[in-house]
Amino acid sequence: MYFTLYNTIFPAAAALARAASLVSKRLGRFFRARRNLFRDLREQASRQKTDGPVVWVHAASAGEFEQARPLLDELKRARGDIRLRISFQSDSAYTAYREYPGADLVFYHPLDTPENAEKTVDIVKPDVFVLMRYDFWPNHLRAARRRGAYLVLAAAVLRDRSVYLNPFARGFYRSVFGLFDRIFTVSERDRVRFEATFGRTDALAAGDPRFDQVLRRKENRERVDHLRSVYAGSRLLVAGSTWEKDEELLVKAYKAMQGSFSLILVPHDVSASNIERLENVLRTHAMASARFSARGDDFNASCVLLVDRTGILAELYSLAGIAYVGGGFGVNVHNTLEPAVYGIPVLFGPAHRNSPEAGELLEAGGAVEVENADAFVRSLRTLLNDPAAAERRGDAADSFVRGRLGASKTIAGTIVRRLETRR
User: 161 pLDDT band (50/70/90 cuts)?
Assistant: First the structure.
């Protein structure tokens, strides 16, 4: 019943979206990217001559794919003949990972119609389908299941206000979750909810593969090593993924504690216009700054370094003695695991409801929540003036991450055992 209703409503919604694509740039990109999808996918598949089981992994966006990467590595390590086929919903994720060396097919996920689903599954030919976290497309799930694929939901969560728990949607999602052969949750709390709400008594609390990923990325520091000599001997705060409210707080603290610490500022938006805005803000407060991409020979740790490129934040945290993670004065705090893996104290604002790991890091003692600029200044002074307190926070952050490793190996082990039984 639920899937029949879905296939009644979805085509109408898709038609409206297609019409809206004439005026919406985002929707326009979505449909243009999929214009020749099946032709291109068939061409890619025809060039693949190797034998071996096919594991299709779907990640909605770059964040979910980064979560999947340690799992993909574990699969390849366990069975070198596995063929990875990866789909994305996001334009930016597809663009970033279209040349991912571990996969023999990388493609946009098609619009979820029964016809598209049959075409996709016929080309991809999955033995196992892995969905990272969310982005459920019932027709594709059902088509893969009919073909005999083993369906895995990895890194699953059920948050307090999740749409899945809505009384009007619960029956539909019970049918969707029932399509999966195995469900791996990030926590025991999520496992209990899957069992109690959706009858999935076989769900397993495997943990979050993101912990495995941040530990792997910890070793990649080459792109920032040239800055180590600049900040040697200074007390450095790296503020990552910041928004305007975060930056107001940081500027106030920097002025109040002038000379007490050095600052690297990595805004969420690294566009030229936003970097110019930040330069003007700092200039107004008589604070010297330099862009990462245009540092002069006279650059030193007394200047605020504005990072105007993407992809290096995790490495920059390796330089820091203290980290600040932005977003906590807006919708939700950004990634707190990236700095925590370096064993340094992590500070952020009060909005972290949608990041359970941030709350758990607080409980573990590895982080400090700051409610406003004054609280931030007080917490920062404590950490700077009491090295032992900072070290205790950092040790707690390190232990927090290391105590939660291993999810990727658990999930990969189940998949590999399943493939072995199908030989």
Answer: confident
